[in-house]
């Protein structure tokens, strides 16, 4: 799923949580993608050269964007249930309480499993024990984007109206 959707869904899931917990959960829900993709994306846009006669149009994909080894390795780590469980356990042990914001990260992993294809950043949810990746649907499919953002719109409308009553 795209990074904005992760943030918006997590915001809904943590709507009743105290603000610091909610903000932390949202941050943890976007970090699994921000960590592997931000360096490559920033480097690409800083180095991108487009001739004036060929301006970028809205909606054009980044030309020549190639994800390096860092992107792939860090993606494996940030999308792994065993890694999540280890960090969750350490946080629980050190804090003495359930680290509720960590569920933002868990939801990210669980949502990405069926919404990524093996061919483009399939979710290695069993890493480092297995390289298995479920071959799901691409979150970038037009019909899925409509379904996703339409569902988000309905959920936010419901949330807004339910808080008024």
Model description:
It is a single chain. With about 160 residues, the protein is mostly helical. It has one domain (about 5-40, about 70-165). The protein is about 60% helix and about 0% strand. The chain has helices at about 5-15, 20-45, 70-80, 80-95, 100-110, 140-165. Helix 1 runs antiparallel to helix 2 and helix 2 packs across helix 5. The relative contact order is 0.15.
Tell me the layout of helices and strands.
Blueprint: H1 3-13, H2 19-47, H3 69-78, H4 81-95, H5 102-112, H6 142-164
Keyword list:
mainly alpha; single chain; 165 residues; 60% helix; 6 helices
Summarize the structure.
The chain has 165 residues and is an all-alpha fold. It has helices spanning 3-13, 19-47, 69-78, 81-95, 102-112, 142-164.
Question: What is the β-strand count?
Answer: 0
Kindly report how far apart the N and C termini lie: 32 Å
The overall pLDDT average reads 90
The fraction of residues assigned to DSSP E strands is: under 5%
Major β-sheet annotation: none
Helix-strand makeup class: mainly alpha
SSE topology string: HHHHHH
- What is the oligomer described by this structure? single chain
Low-confidence stretches: none
Helix percent reads 55-70%
**What global shape is seen?**
globular
**Overall number of structural domains:** 1
Radius of gyration: 18 Å
